[in-house]
Amino acid sequence: SFTEWELMEWSEQQAVFNFLYDSMTLTVVFGPPIADEFFAARPSRSILSLDFESFLDEEQAPPSSCLVHKLIFQFIESRGCWQKKCPKLCYLPQALLDISLVVNRCKILGEELEFLQRWGAKFQLLETDIKDTEVKLLFSSSVAFAKFELTLALSHDYPSAVPPFRVQTHIGNIGEKEIAAVLSRVPAGHHYLRRTVTSIHQNLLQGPR
């Protein structure tokens, strides 16, 4: 269920996989066959290199797409030399699964951000701003007499790890202490960002504090 890749080429020399609507490519360069070793009923091959490339036009792409690519490549770089982890063909399925899991999580994050940018007003979310790998959420509620910014520092571990945050209060008494109390009740996991926004809206923005 996490096959996020599409095979574009498979030859004696290399295999090419596309991810994220052809905006990212993995090229696997094969070495010579390995004696007396088989994979999928064919002679196994050594792997000389795994090269990742992004084709995203960052000037034209929406900020959410840029963030998704930054986090995916953050994960790729965090793993060090992929050829050492995937020296021959039998290791390739696991490498593709590892990449697919991160691509899937980051793709869902991109969908969350697009949702908040479109429907944030329902949650008193005035603005969703993305800079590098940080997401700034600007809340404003006349009922609660409050206006504040919540900035989340995201990483490729999202949403399995709760991201660090900081708060800037513009109007009212809602600050870091109040936000931290709400976030402590939002567990890491699927749609963490949306659940965080919903929880803040329900617990802090429904009336005066």
Automatic annotation (TrEMBL):
GO terms for biological process: attachment of spindle microtubules to kinetochore; protein localization to kinetochore. Residues 1-110 form the Knl1 C-terminal RWD domain. It comes from the Eukaryota. One of its GO terms (cellular component) is nucleus. Pfam families: Knl1_RWD_C. This is KNL1 protein. It comes from Prunella fulvescens.
